[in-house]
Design goal:
It is built from twelve helices and twelve strands. The protein is 33% helix and 19% strand. The longest helix has 16 residues. The strands form two sheets. Strands 1, 2, 3, 4, 6, 7, 9, 10, 11 and 12 form a ten-stranded mixed beta sheet that branches. The two termini are 12 Å apart.
Length: 377
Amino acid sequence: MKKKISVLITLVVLLIIAVSCANNEKDKDYIKKVALNQESIAVGIYKASTENSVNIKYIAEALNIDGGIVYVTLNDEDVLRTKLENIDVIIFPEVEKGQTIDKLDDEVAGIFKKFISKKGAIGLCNGCSMLINNSENQTLDLVGLCVSNEEKEDIIKRRVKFNLTEEGKKIFPDLIDFENLYMNYCSGFNISKLDTTSGNKTLGFYTKGDIKEPLFITKKYKSGKICITNAHPETTAGMRWMLPRLVRWVYNKKFISYNKKVYRPDLYTDELILNKEKQNEIESLLIQLEKGNKDEILNAMEKLEFLYPYGAAEKVRKLLIEKNNNLKIRAAKYLVDIEYTFAIEDLRKIVKSERSKKVKEQLSIYLQELETMTEQN
């Protein structure tokens, strides 16, 4: 489905595409020149110039759920050139483990502060460091809280149980009837202390031992809004819609409901801790996925869908061209189950060339399910 375009507004990334892509070919997948209509919310996803931002493509796909949102990736050159004109919400993604944004150009920082004071921002995982008080690196210093970067090597939580506060239920009324919810969690970046005197509000918290730690935090900064989280809605099947909902909240745009293909808050029913034993199991399953026989591959997909769904997705995606129909169909189901909308074009090509009428019909159903996950309104 293509968005109907009424008024064209050019958003950044013109001359610099050739330069930036020469340094990193992968940037081509995420750098876009956006055309949007007057009703669209334009989101800028900030790609730090000195660090390796991660999950940008997952953020973009989560935003694609909402037909009223368009996005563009922005680096420092883009910010300086455009002054964020025509952007409505800025998102600061996670940067690669072990990295921090420890240097920010003064002029870029000034542009961000001015923008956020009027519009708003979302920080994900350690991308939140752009917004918080943090003595370890230069930030915009807009949200008062303390974080801990300590991480145990033997236990890394990947999916945690969380509960909404009354403030959280105002933004996510769709989740009021759910006592326990589950979200992929950013280990190693823990919010250890919240300054409630400066207008910070907690939308949700998770329990760590006997301690309740904030998971989603909001704050108003002058006329703008800020939301930060050390969770990963963009990679949590059934909950990805929470990211476009937060975008609408930041921009003061009317909430919309999303269909049952992406709204699945009851998909997970327990926490998942990836200790060394689980990580070794995952490694074995990934090898089995590539080198096993038919039954072993099917078994690996079944287990990986629960343990490591997005991490195995690209390997599963390759199975769509398998000659064995059972593998091909199960791979398509896997990708639908985890809402992997990157595979839409792959499935379109496979459906078009598939000779078996029965297989074509089944793959067409999965294709339609993936397609209905995008551009909802």
